[in-house]
Design brief:
Length: about 575
């Protein structure tokens, strides 16, 4: 009702140009589509506004249309509906200038000609628009509703559709976005992230807000109050006795709640409700969900989905390729990197240039991955490795560069520490140009399954089965911060039906591709990428074999360095020679 009243009031007053786009995101099954349908009927019947209703797919639009058609089939309203079209619903009335009455088409036709001349025809429509490039070129309307934004599969059409809302007859345009926030990489999250720049208004509610009030016999307010320990992270509440038995690490996830009503202390919904249904819910609407139904929703959903789609607290990590990535863990300052490498303390003012000098002094090898593009970004991810860990210190990314500009950008950002570069093998011509310009370009081949295999290697470095992470980014560096943003949003492509596919989404993937080319070539076991199970699910025997291979690579690099071979930055085993020195391992 707050959603309906806010939008209706702004449309009636028509005096707030800043209220031009508003996002209402909420939990699953919490009346978003129903509310939008009511608003659309109000728009054509009372607000003098045409409406475009955009849906991701045709079947999705039918639910809203069912609501609209049901409302418009009621007595009085149904007489103003003209035609029966699935794509567009017309509302036609005749406003009598003398009496102010609104007449139906049949009533108008019964008037004598002199009376008809006193009437003004008023036509408004609700048009269904499917989110495609063709559909996005719909005619302009002053009220534009996009239902379930997060299931839109064509971002280009979504962007194109932003031109649909437009002023008409003095009515300022309003765009209403509704959705559940399903994914951390979805359009809802992008709209939220960009709200400061775009001026988008954001409102939300969750499943607790649409659940029935808790009766006294359930929360038992007359019994002595208790102390409960609650975890927002685990969505769990425990007694003091259970809390005391937990490890200190587990206890850190819990907060102490005092004066909790006796019934609430044992209720499965308490971690999410925190007594609000007993003290705050005043509505007695028959639409509200029964408490037991809401409890079942939480225990049916996975924890990430409960947090994201029921409580609307944070986006789910479902569908992310690197859910292991954590800024607090994987982002280190220059001084923190230097300390981790050498064991010595360094001032907070340590610069990137000073860090590079420390890395070189430690015998660490510079290397990089590079992804070519024109309309996509030309991207490189570079850093130093010690045979066991990778420290990313330089990321370059820019679109629409010609070959000469790519060379110049590479000289500016990479040449100062001269990394071995693993370029995308699909553009050997550009690699040849860079090689002639003095860059150490390494040839390699993509093999079947190498994308998934490379992703597994990056995952393993981010969060090994045993021990600390082996991959770090330079905090505060502009390029590394961009890569961190890309990693956090890198996801599997969604299928047309909304399910998660098996291939990475290619939107803004250039930096993550360059990262994969780098790490998969430097850390691939024995120089050959082996596609297997997720390293996070390896058996103890597989983990031990990996540790042995890592130790072998480190030992092998030391032998090569002692014999004057200094460009084996990939740290791989195999056969090779330099001068009279030959190896085969």
């Amino acid at each position: 009702m707050d959603m309906l009243w806010e939008t209706y009031e702004r449309a009636i007053k028509n005096d707030d140009p800043t209220f031009n786009r508003v996002l209402y995101f909420a939990s699953r099954d919490s009346f978003k589509t129903l509310g939008a349908a009511i608003l659309e009927v109000l728009a054509v019947m009372h607000l003098d506004r045409d409406v475009a209703h955009m849906a991701a797919i045709e079947s999705q639009s039918r639910k809203s249309q069912q609501y609209v058609k049901k409302f418009l089939s009621s007595p009085i309203l149904r007489d103003y509906v003209v035609g029966d079209n699935q794509e567009i619903t017309w509302i036609v009335r005749y406003l009598h200038k003398g009496t102010g009455d609104n007449l139906t088409e049949d009533q108008f036709k019964e008037l004598p000609k002199t009376e008809q001349d006193l009437c003004e025809e008023v036509r408004h429509f609700i048009r269904i628009v499917i989110c495609t490039m063709a559909g996005a070129n719909s005619e302009h309307v002053p009220l534009f509703v996009v239902d379930e934004v997060d299931v839109v599969r064509d971002p280009r059409a979504y962007e194109e559709a932003k031109f649909i809302p437009a002023p008409r007859d003095g009515k300022m345009p309003i765009t209403v976005l509704t959705s559940t926030r399903k994914f951390s990489f979805g359009l809802v999250q992008k709209e939220i992230d960009q709200a400061r720049e775009t001026g988008l208004k954001i409102r939300h509610w969750n499943i607790i807000d649409v659940t029935q009030a808790c009766p006294p016999e359930r929360h038992k307010p007359d019994l002595p109050k208790l102390t409960v320990y609650r975890s927002d992270e685990e969505l769990r509440a425990v007694s003091e006795a259970t809390f005391e038995e937990m490890s200190p690490e587990r206890q850190d996830k819990y907060v102490r709640d005092e004066n909790v009503m006796a019934g609430c202390s044992t209720c499965k919904l308490y971690p999410m409700c925190q007594g609000r249904l007993a003290t705050k819910q005043t509505s007695r609407s028959s639409l509200l969900k029964p408490i037991d139904h809401t409890i079942n929703q939480f225990y049916t959903a996975s924890l990430p989905n409960a947090q994201a789609q029921l409580l609307c607290k944070k986006p789910s990590t479902e569908g992310l390729i690197y859910p292991q990535f954590d800024r607090d863990v994987h982002m280190l300052t220059a001084s923190e990197m230097a300390e981790r490498i050498t064991g010595d303390k360094y001032p907070e003012t340590l610069t990137k240039t000073e860090l590079v000098a420390i890395m070189k002094a430690q015998g660490m090898k510079p290397s990089a991955g590079m992804d070519f593009g024109y309309t996509h970004n030309f991207a490189a991810v570079a850093g130093f490795t010690d045979g066991y860990r990778a420290y990313c210190i330089e990321v370059m990314s820019q679109a629409e560069l010609d070959p000469v500009q790519k060379v110049e950008l590479s000289k500016k950002q990479l040449k100062y520490f001269d990394p071995v570069i693993y370029p995308d093998p699909e553009d050997p011509g550009m690699a040849k140009i860079l090689r002639k310009s003095g860059f150490r370009m390494k040839e390699w081949k993509k093999t079947p399954g190498s994308v998934r295999g490379g992703i597994d290697i990056v995952r393993m470095l981010m969060r090994p089965a045993v021990g600390e992470p082996r991959f770090y980014l330079l905090a505060g560096d502009e390029g590394c911060e961009l890569l961190a943003k890309r990693i956090s949003a890198y996801h599997w492509a969604l299928q047309p039906d909304g399910t998660i596919g098996k291939d990475p989404d290619d939107e803004l993937d250039d930096e993550c591709d360059a990262l994969r080319y780098w790490l998969m070539n430097v850390f691939a076991p024995r120089g050959t990428l082996k596609v297997g199970r997720d390293p996070l699910q390896q058996t103890p025997e597989e983990q031990a074999r990996h540790r042995l291979e890592t130790a072998e690579r480190k030992w092998f690099n030391q032998i090569l360095a002692e014999n004057g071979v200094n460009d084996n930055a990939e740290g791989t085993l195999g056969a090779g020679s330099q001068g009279s020195f030959k190896w085969n391992i």
